[in-house]
């Protein structure tokens, strides 16, 4: 860390970028878990089709399945409606932009001196977890974009693994920063 900047804490611009990122990532995780991971578009009751259901009912279930599959393929931000997949893409692009801007702004604005409440070991942990978080802010959305651009589910484990790695880095980040004396520097 460099020692330029306000000794009492971070600059307003850094705080704004930090909490905007937290909001965008939290919303993105919620949307991510709401997406249909296995792409299963079979409507409830489809397993009964065949001898058990009327033609009209089968047609209705097929229509529902077609609509679901059309939605699942739809990452077109400029076209028609706005669904969860598109929200996931839009939020992902926002996080990616923040992931690019933050390290640049960190270089320009500098960082405040270390909190005196952090031991040497904790400072090392803070240093590496911040690097990991900043890197993952780029890697997680990029892995999602690769997944969608290639249309190949073989990339899904990378996207899932990257966001799990993000959770690990975040847990380490919170282990040092969730104490009031440290948290105050970012409020
Ligand atoms: C910060 C950025 C992102 C985060 C935190 C994130 C998080 C997630 C999460 C939590 C899931 C569900 C995984 C699971 O249930 O284990 C998911 C799935 C997915 N994400 Fe992302 N994601 C991000 C960016 C993106 C981007 C930019 C795209 C590209 C459009 C994308 C495409 C997908 C796709 C295609 C799936 C699977 C959905 C399905 O199979 O129906 N993600 N993401
Ligand atoms: C999306 C999740 C998060 C990311 C990516 C993230 C990333 C970062 C980064 C990169 C820094 C270094 C300062 C900078 O470069 O601007 C930082 C500092 C800080 N973060 Fe987070 N953070 C996240 C969530 C949180 C949460 C949930 C809290 C507490 C509730 C928190 C508390 C802090 C504090 C207190 C500092 C200042 C530590 C110090 O005294 O140097 N962060 N964070």
From TrEMBL:
Keywords: Cell membrane, Electron transport, Heme, Iron, Membrane, Metal-binding, Transmembrane, Transmembrane helix, Transport. Pfam families: Ni_hydr_CYTB. Its main location: membrane. It is a multi-pass membrane protein. Residues 10-176 form the Cytochrome b561 bacterial/Ni-hydrogenase domain. It comes from the Bacteria. This is Cytochrome b/b6 domain-containing protein. It is found in: Cell membrane. Belongs to the cytochrome b561 family. The chain crosses the membrane at residues 16-35, 87-105, 132-150, 156-176.
